[in-house]
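Q: what does this look like with guanosine-5'-triphosphate bound?
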Amino acid sequence: MLQMLYTQATQLQQFNVSLTNNALFSYLTIWAVSHVYEYKRSYVVQQLQKLASVDPLTGLYNRRQLTAVFEHCLVTHRRSEEQFGLLLLDVDHFKTINDRYGHDAGDLMLTHLASLMKVHSRHDDWAFRVGGEEFCLLVVRSNQQLLQQVAERLRQDIEQHPGQYNDQKISFTVSIGIAVWPEDGSTFASLYRQADRRLYQAKKDGRNTVVA
Ligand SMILES: Nc1nc2c(ncn2[C@@H]2O[C@H](COP(=O)(O)OP(=O)(O)OP(=O)(O)O)[C@@H](O)[C@H]2O)c(=O)[nH]1
């Protein structure tokens, strides 16, 4: 009788252990699967966010990001009581480049210009492609004088460094309008409008020039 009871108790114990093992195994499997799923989900979200904020041709931020970045800069610059500014660039006679060398060459000149903009940006400045052949550099912690220097250096660099398309060198120039926050506008719309007016003036003045 005792022997029988002992056998039943042992079997019950083994059953309990196997139940616990199964539960542990199921828990670990669910934990691992949910972690892989979560990792993949956040990767896809990141990729979608990147696609929504970056211009696919040049790798610069797109126009959609410009207002968000501006609002962020407003907060930080109000706090530090520093100025910042916008350089609005437009390629001169870009249509002629497309017409003469083809659309692919035009695309390459846009990426060439984007890389020169990156060269002239500090690590916390922001470079955008805001339209077809229109670009914007948001220069943080700057003033009128610094913005003019950056714009003039960039203009000269673009003029002196033609882009390469197959075995051809293609020269082009840009016109630049500058606006400084808060003097030229305290909101994004007013500051951008002022930079745009000055860009228009630079075009009227004969192009390949900076208007501040
Ligand atoms: N290759 C290429 N061309 C583009 C792209 N986006 C816009 N364009 C071209 O850019 C040209 C812009 O021409 P316009 O607005 O007349 O300006 P522009 O010829 O640069 O003349 P100004 O600005 O007055 O100096 C048009 O021919 C568009 O087709 C692009 O992504 N790639």
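Residues 1-52 form one domain. The chain has a mean pLDDT of 92.
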